[in-house]
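Lab notes, practical 5.
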Amino acid sequence: MGNRIGPYETKEVLGKGGMGTVYRAIDPTVNREVALKVINPELSQNTLLMKRFKNEAIAMARLCHPNIVVLYNFFSEADLNYIVMEYVRGKSLSQMIRDGGALSWERAFPIFRQILNAIDHAHSQGIIHRDIKPSNFLLQHDGIVKVTDFGVAKVFGGEELTRAGSTLGTSHYMSPEQILGQSIGISSDIYSLGITLFEMMTGRVPFSGNSDFEIQRGHLEILPPSPRQFNPNVPKEVEAAILKSLEKRPEKRFSSAHHFLQSLSETMPHLRKGFTPHSVKPRGGVLKYLPNTLDKVRGLLQRKPRVLTRGAGFTEKGPIFSLPEWLTLKGKWPLRFSGWKNMFPFAPLDSWVARYQRLPAEAKWMILLAGTLLIILFLVILFSISTRSLV
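Output from the prediction step:
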């Protein structure tokens, strides 16, 4: 194939395996870097393998999410079969763990939150990944996580690619039902996500051995060890969530990636980020922040108020915020915020202020615009009433 594959100019090999090769290439039409996943020509006659390859293209084409690698095109002609997809600059989660060992919870949560968002979206589109593992999560330099490799994904309504008694996936991350060759669903991905989070927090997988048989026996028969056994800094609530996701029986695990994330978010409220359920379609412009804002409001109504302390930064109780200096005039106002906030009958006022300060700039502008429009409407009504009374 030389330095060209179809219209694409290959630059370097990113990875190579028994199934094929992944290249970094340039799309000369739009001068864009892409990744080409090319099947080895000698395997093009393998019917099952080609079905898996086509299945990956179908799965990726269904998905449109900021944390899932974008599919640009799919080509299948004679012995040349390849997928054109988004090129991600960065490294895999497995590389990060291998280089730095266990992650702190403060570092792990933002990464795992994005993974759960992406997998929840895939599930909402009827797709089970079936090969969840750290090497399939790519971390960009800006902190954005991209989920890739849907080559063994199960597409609801599509043809099943496994025969009775056969399995697809990676032994260290496979669910018990996947090992047994049984019918799998969302709970199988939940199990693999639990293994991934276990490895993120401890630097190792819960079940290991010298053979696939030993590893699979652990998944089927042995209770997972406590993550805190390997890393005492793992929060107890996070450990409980991990162990719940690793239940042997699928019905005892989290029912969805959304519930998994909810459990983790509720145990660490000061790290909580907006979660966009799969039922909310991505929006453009300012409206894309609306689901996150509503999520913050729902969380606010369910939490106890936190005392507002002057200064900035974080304490053991979470983030603390202070009002701008122009509002308090450095404490010279006769009625400071700490005084007049207590005049209101609802205690969470200080908590509302703190959460307002954490909203995206676009959301703050929305609130400001809505308030301005309400004031204008009030003045118009007041002017109308005054005019009538004068007449």
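Observations recorded by the TA: Residues 114 and 145 are 6 Å apart (CA to CA). The first helix runs from residue 47 to 62.
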